[in-house]
């Protein structure tokens, strides 16, 4: 009972494009349906790290289709991802986040809802093309796009019809939304929600740089520096060490080092006027 009380649903809120026009009504419906509190997060108003902190304990994440759904990576095991699609956008043709939830180790439940009622959409043909505007197109093409009921398959991601439809604002039909959600929850795997130990590994080091200095005709120094992986600050680790490999070009042997710092100057076995290959991880 205490675990149920602590659970909550997260709704991704947008303030400029792809709006959920009845967001407050959607939040109320979710709260009543699941008897849970519902919180909103926004990339426009919150830091990425604070959003991840909220999402990492959520029972469910609800969002319009968009890059913000990459944050479902940080959901706990057995959570549900609900992706909302605007009118004329077929969920079966846009599946990166559905694929993400099915990757080994994710153990997330995926649900998609599609607006099938054209009267529940608000279009923006006068916006810049990169936000779905079509005013720059020939009149016949504009009319064809506005009359279309289903975006045809296309290459990502500058197709004007796709942009026009994906940047619509949507009035979510609450009865159909809840109906889809109820059916999907019937097939949800019975996984116990636990915060598992992190299995996310650090990404690549960033901004790796090498500098050389010649001391004498027979002596040189090689300084290697780098920045921490982008995701390291989100991982709970007590100690971080870096592996540096140096190979003289044309040779088959390597000089390996394990270092705790983000820069180091090597002088042993470093020759002047010689090319070295360097790896850092």
UniProtKB/TrEMBL annotation:
Compartments reported by the entry: Endomembrane system
One annotated Gene Ontology cellular component of this protein: endoplasmic reticulum
Protein's membrane topology: Single-pass membrane protein
Pfam families recorded: Glyco_transf_61
Key words of the record: Glycoprotein, Glycosyltransferase, Membrane, Transferase, Transmembrane, Transmembrane helix
GO biological process, one term: protein O-linked glycosylation via mannose
Molecular function in Gene Ontology: protein O-acetylglucosaminyltransferase activity
Domain Glycosyltransferase 61 catalytic: 5-82
Family label: Belongs to the glycosyltransferase 61 family.
Identification of the protein by name: Glycosyltransferase
Taxonomic lineage: Eukaryota, Metazoa, Chordata, Craniata, Vertebrata
Name of encoding gene: glyt
